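Following up on my earlier thread - several people asked me to post the actual chain instead of describing it. Fair enough. Here it is, all 265 residues.
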Amino acid sequence: MPDFAELSATAPPVAGAQVVSRIAQLLRLVGRDPNGSPLADIVRDSGLTRPTVHRLLSSLAAEGLLVLDPASHTWRYGPEIFVMGTVAAPRYPVDELARPALQRLADATGESAFLSIRRGLETVCLMREEGSFPVRSFVLHEGVRFPLGVASAGLAILSALPDTEVDEVLRAQAGLTERWGAQNAAGSIRLNVRATRDRGWALNPGLVLEGSWGMGAAVFDRAGRPAWALSLTGIEPRFRPDRQQFLAALLTQESALLTARLAER
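Reply from S.P.:
Thanks for posting it. Predicted structure:
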């Protein structure tokens, strides 16, 4: 009898699977910005035609999954998304466990602290805690997605994967430089992975936005897989070499503590 993998490889595609994939993609695109996403941006980044995008967004709005802001003409998550998230939240306790860690990091450093989760080839920012320092970097906020290896959280997670998986991720991310610049080419990311492993924490010296720096440390699940990352972001003068060790010690301490608490749950 053929095993499940063989059956999956030979089975015909499920009817409507393409529509489901497109809907999931649009939901992710809308969720990138809490302030809403304009139709033009969604069309551009989805690769779909404008009529197709508008039709799917309107259908999602009819189900309460999205809403169209009449003032800004941007698409946002609707009330059904909130209901689904509320129902799902108890199964994923990282939220309640991570919030105290973010608060301690923000209080001790004055910088903005973040929790990101790995989703496939990307990281998604789940939550943030603002620090007391008045000048901040606004590159990262809830819902923002970065490719693995781009920005400090994704670099921390990628660096904690085996070399074979790092190779697979980078092969799947062909064309990364078109969106993120030559500084995020596969060769550069490999160098950053090696440096991250040597240090024990990731450093983003303005590779996403000039002058906006970040540091990250991976958080592991019960199987020992890097599933999340804690990070700090701010302006370049706040991340000079003489302060990096202080920030790194706090960051790695909190990431290890969060990993341990997740294992207990």
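The two ends are 39 Å apart (CA to CA). That should answer part of your original question.
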